[in-house]
Every structure is written in C-alpha cells, then in structure tokens.
Amino acid sequence: VSWITTTLRSQDERAAYFNETTVLLQNYLIMAATARSQNAMQRKYKKDLESGAADAGKDPIEFIRATCLSRGASGIRGLARAFQIIDDDGSKTLNLQEFTNGLKDFGIYFDSSDEYKRVFDLFDTSGDGLIDFDEFLRKLRPPMSKTRINLIRRAFSKLDSDKSGVVTHEDLKAYDVRQHPKYQNGEWDREQVLKEFLAAFETPGEADGEVTWDEFINYYAGVSASIDTDAYFTVMMMKAWKL
To answer: For position 52, what pLDDT does the model report?
Structure first.
C-alpha cells in the first residue's frame, strides 16, 4: 500500500490502479470458478455411478446422464455428437439400432436388447420409433428452476458483449488473462488461455472457438445438478460472474 501511495501520487492514478487490479482479479476468478465447478460436478457423478445412486435398472435416464456428466459438463453434447456421427442420412433422428450403437460407442451399456428398447421408448415421446436429437438433449438435460435459468442467462449475456447470441474471442477482448498460472509461467499465450476457457463450454469434437446459448446452458445444467439448493447456486453464480 505504501508503494502504491508513493508511486501513484494522484487520486486518479490510484483509482485507475485499483480498478485495473479489480478487473484482473474478477476475470481470473471467473475462469477459476468455471474449472472448479467442472471438477466438482465430475466428482459428484463419478461417485453416483460407483455407489449405485445412478442405477441403470432403476432410472436409466439418470444413469445415462450421470455417465455423460462424469466426463464433464459437455458430456451430454458429446453423446449427441456420437449420435450425429452414426446419423448417415443427416435426418437428426435415431432409430432403435442407431440409438443402441451410439450408446455402446460412447461406453454406456445395458444388460439386454430389451433394456435398450425400454430406454429408447423413454426418449421416443412421440411414439413414432424415432428419437429427435433436440428431444433427446432436452430430456437428458438435468432439470433446473427458473431462478437458476435466469442466472445462467445473465451470465451468458455478460459474456456475450456484442449481443450476437454467440460468445467468441472477440467478446472476451476485455478479459485480462495475466493472472492465469499458465500465462504467468509462459506455457500459454493470451489466445490459448481464452481458447481453453471457451472450450470448457463447447461440445467435444466440435470446438470452434464459439459458445452458443445451448452449449452454455448445457454446461451449467450439469453444474446445477451437483448443487442442492437455489440459494447456494445463486451465491456461486453471483460470485463467479459478478452479477
């Protein structure tokens, strides 16, 4: 403090210094909080799978959800990506065989063909023998209260500085990465830090440096499912994003 007072003699200089320092700290806290949320969520779902809390026989949808989210917040989108790969005709729908193959390719197994059919029917809400990708993602996404969705929307709006509906590196140009450990030790440059930050929200295999609202809410739906109360989720979001 004495150094600041001596070196930065004018009140305006001191105010500018503290403002810059505050922004640096806030930007780093957002990035750090994102990583911590991801790790906590993965631990929670791995524990559920190991303990049997997410049981394939009792609740197959929760079992699929837990398997996806134990791999990270983008795990659900990763499964959707696996389905897209086997969707040869580009119809954005799956029949029973494609659904079964997609689950197996992603490492999700049930005991018999009858079990796969039972799970398929849970997602085939229209009863036409096909699962729509969007229908699948909506069903698999952990449910959230309006309070949580509103907070997630506010965080996304804060990131989406140009209000285009997509977050890119350009939206993050005001974010100073100098407090990131890998930037400080020279391992990453600014672009790498921002790329890693955006990649946390993106779909595996489809990382393009852009984060859509769908990807953002899917990420936080996974985080939300590991937090019991709206009050705690609110505190977490308000602190992480300075809402």
So the answer is: 78
